Amino acid sequence: MDDPWRVRQEDRPATAAALLRSPGRERKAGGSGTLWRTMVPAEERMLIDELVGEAEEQLLPLRGAQTGSTADAARHLLGNLSWGVEFLERALWRTAVAALNAGVPVQDVAGWAGLSAAELTDVLTAGRDENDE
């Protein structure tokens, strides 16, 4: 499937039939009762996917056995871990903002992220400051 004109299903605009089915699915969904695809713009979903992909690229090479001196191996591991964490923090911020914008209560988003509501507020504030620069 190397068709350069192929558009992934999640990037295609919703059809009228899909939009009419959405309210029924939303009632059955947990949390805010809204569906991710209907509430989060494709551009935002793509940015989140890219951040997670970048984190994965940084972390995958760390699975192999490290060679060289302890200092070199530790420097390599810590450098890649640091980059991976940075991308994951950005993905956390963007995903939390998307969920909150979709109407998910702060307590739910915080719980899903393994944070208290105050910690989530701190993460969102720090992320907003980083993205404003």
Going by helix content, strand content and strand pairing, the class is: mainly alpha
Biggest sheet layout = none
User: Element order, helices and strands?
Assistant: HHHHHH
Mean pLDDT: 80
> Based on DSSP secondary structure assignment, what is the total number of beta strands?
0
- Range of strand content: under 5%
| Cα Rg | 19 Å
How large is the count of helical segments?
A: 6
Poorly predicted parts:
none
List the helices and strands and how they pair.
Layout: H1 16-28, H2 36-39, H3 42-59, H4 70-101, H5 106-112, H6 117-132
Sum this structure up briefly:
With 133 residues, this protein is mostly helical. The protein is built from six helices and no strands. Helix 3 runs antiparallel to helix 4 and helix 4 (70-101) packs across helix 6 (117-132).
Report on the structure:
With 133 residues, the chain is mainly alpha-helical. 68% of the residues lie in helices and 0% in strands. It starts with 15 loop residues before the first helix and ends with a helix. Helix 4 crosses helix 6. The longest helix has 32 residues, at 70-101. It contains six helices and no strands.
